[in-house]
């Protein structure tokens, strides 16, 4: 066997400081298989030493091979450990960034919730202040009494209806004022309504028309009815006339029929305190008199003022309906 060839197969031995040249040289000097028996008989002692040296070299080479395998395995394990350590480090970095992002999101939500809570608290406080200033159904006392006195002056409430309680008549009267002043029509006396109703520029109502005889006049645009007696308005009433497609007709008409217990066969609805002025169109009591046009063509009158209007109208009395 060529020693240089064997040496090339075992570089690990040189890397570890083991010099296998003597063993390789001894192996190279072993007898060839040819004429082995002859040479062994001629040199028995030398042959024995050679065999012993061969055994020793074989063991040495085997050890070198095992050491090389062990070192390669250790190197591979070290590489795997390094890769695992790098992966663990990267995972830790990602986890840290994730936790930081989640914490930032949590803090942002806390700030947002706090801001929203402050806004809601401010809105509630403002509403409380407004409610404390408002006058609305169920309220009573001197402020309500003062409001009612002003509405009496404006011909929108009767004296017998002013009892210091924000009753149905007061709601209807406030809505009549709101309509006349072009304010929101809800029957609640908020800051704008109270400021306006107490304003020096508010004057007593005047007739819509030049009709000289006692009459009832209706304004579709203002959604108001006025009872006119002796050329003066004695009552202003909030009404609700016909909605789109079922409009209340405009013009000058006359009351031709009255029925305190009228009933609509078309709409299957009661029409108490009805004063008919044109065909099936009448002014009558209703429990629903919103601030806008909502009827089927008739003129709805709040219950608090239906009796007064019914008592005022007579057969042949003019009813003037203006746009």
What topology emerges from the helices and strands here?
Blueprint: H1 3-9, H2 11-15, H3 21-28, H4 36-42, H5 44-133, H6 142-153, H7 168-180, H8 191-197, E1 215-219, E2 224-229, E3 232-238, E4 251-254, E5 257-264, E6 269-278, E7 281-286, E8 299-302, H9 303-312, E9 318-322
Parallel strand pairs: 1-9, 7-8
Antiparallel strand pairs: 1-2, 2-3, 4-9, 5-6, 6-7
Global mean pLDDT: 82
Number of DSSP E strands: 9
Q: Look at the helices and sheets and give the structural class.
A: alpha+beta
Q: Please describe the biggest sheet, giving its number of strands, its sense, and whether it closes into a barrel.
A: 5 strands, mixed
Taking pLDDT < 50 over at least 5 consecutive residues as the criterion, the unreliable ranges are 33-41
Tell me the distance between the termini: 129 Å
**How many structurally independent domains?**
3
The helix content, as a percent range, equals 40-55%
Shape from CA axes? elongated
Description of the molecule:
- By secondary structure, this protein is an alpha+beta fold.
- The chain folds into 3 domains: 1-133; 142-197, PGBD-like superfamily/PGBD (Muramoyl-pentapeptide Carboxypeptidase, domain 1, Orthogonal Bundle), CATH 1.10.101.10; 215-322, L,D-transpeptidase catalytic domain-like.
- It contains 9 helices and 9 strands.
- The strands form 2 sheets. It has a 5-stranded mixed sheet. The chain has a 4-stranded mixed sheet with strand order 5-6-7-8, covered by helices on one side.
- Helix 3 (21-28) packs across helix 5 (44-133).
- It is elongated, with a radius of gyration of 56 Å.
- The termini are far apart.
- The relative contact order is 0.08.
- The model is unreliable at 33-41 (pLDDT under 50).
